[in-house]
UniProtKB/TrEMBL annotation:
Species for this entry: Rheinheimera aquimaris
Protein name listed in UniProt: Uncharacterized protein
Top-rank taxon, per record: Bacteria
Residues of the full protein shown: 426 to 703 of 703
EAL domain sequence ranges: 24-277
Length: 278
């Protein structure tokens, strides 16, 4: 009997595992097909100067337009894209579309840098540098109109290599931002080692900074760190006027968040540029 139970149990687990593998395989096929059939869309969220509310740039955020017309958010497919390596072709599409938009804004009279999220596997991909150089040339963009957002976790995976890649990008004049700053391994020594242009204060600290004393202190500390190291600061996840006022008082110059605008499809972003929020 025990043997039979054991076997049933074995079957149960293997079935569940089989189900999961099948589901994962289907998700991977969906993702692959979205990339191949041009169903990736890039939205843009304004980055603003906290003092004036002027738009100073935009972050490119990818979505999938599913076959039934629904928008799928990156939280649902970026992790799988990273695991399967599909992040490299996906990221290429995002870079192309982002540079094309920046060229369009420029031609419409708004010279704005575009920030693109770069996953670890893209960052260390030997093809990235060439792709970017080619895109900047084709779109006639100066390198300081492109900013790469990389997470701390991606940076520390291979520190030697990271330092080298960062040096090359910065030599080209491309800006580098550390995304979600404060949530990874925020060692001060690597800030010294990896020269970057921008720290993005993670929204998890911003969210409760007005209620939670330790979040407030973390935000304050990141801001003074940036100031003393001469690194630009931008706060993510600004949702209220009170967030903005407090960050501004602490000396943070830039921000992005729903208080200003959600990420917008390209046409709406251009409207936002023309009309502004207020
Ligand atoms: P992230 O780079 O940290 O982007 C910020 C996320 O916060 C975006 O979510 C944005 O819509 C959201 N957000 C902005 N302001 C607010 C706010 O005031 N309140 C709240 N609650 N959320 C706000 P989204 O677009 O869903 O992207 C999630 C993450 O997916 C990104 O986090 C990034 O890590 C990843 N991602 C998005 N697009 C790409 C891409 O093209 N390539 C790669 N590698 N990752 C991407
Ligand atoms: Mg980002
Ligand atoms: Mg972030
Ligand atoms: Mg994030």
């Amino acid at each position: 009997k025990a043997k039979q139970e054991g076997r049933n149990r074995y079957c149960f687990f293997s079935e569940e595992l089989g189900q999961r593998m099948l589901q994962r395989h289907q998700q991977e096929q969906h993702l692959r097909s979205a990339i191949e059939h041009n169903r990736l869309e890039v939205y843009f969220q304004p980055k603003v100067a906290l003092g004036s509310g002027n738009v100073v740039g935009a972050e490119a955020l990818v979505r999938i337009r599913s076959e039934d017309g629904n928008i799928i958010s990156p939280a649902e497919f970026i992790p799988l894209a990273e695991e399967t390596g599909l992040i490299v072709p996906l990221g290429k599409v995002v870079l192309i579309k982002s540079c094309q938009q920046a060229a369009l804004w420029k031609n419409a009279g708004s010279i704005l840098p575009v920030s693109v999220n770069i996953a670890a596997a893209q960052f260390t991909d030997p093809g990235l540098m060439g792709l970017i150089e080619q895109l900047l040339m084709e779109c006639q963009l100066s390198p300081d109109l492109l900013e790469l957002e990389v997470t701390e976790t991606a940076l520390i995976q291979d520190p030697e290599r990271t330092a080298e890649i960062l040096k090359k990008f910065r030599a080209l004049g491309i800006r580098i931002a550390i995304d979600d700053f404060g949530t990874g391994y925020s060692s001060l020594s690597y800030l010294k080692r990896f020269k970057v242009d921008v720290l993005k204060i993670d929204m998890s600290f911003v969210k409760d900074m007005l209620q939670d004393k330790s979040d407030y202190e973390i935000v304050k500390t990141i801001i003074s760190l940036g100031q003393s190291m001469n690194i630009e600061l931008i706060a993510e996840g600004i949702e209220t006027a009170a967030h903005q006022a407090s960050l501004q008082e602490l000396g943070c110059l830039y921000g992005q968040g729903y208080y200003y605008s959600k990420p917008l499809p390209p046409e709406q972003f251009i409207q936002y540029l023309q009309v502004g929020k207020h």
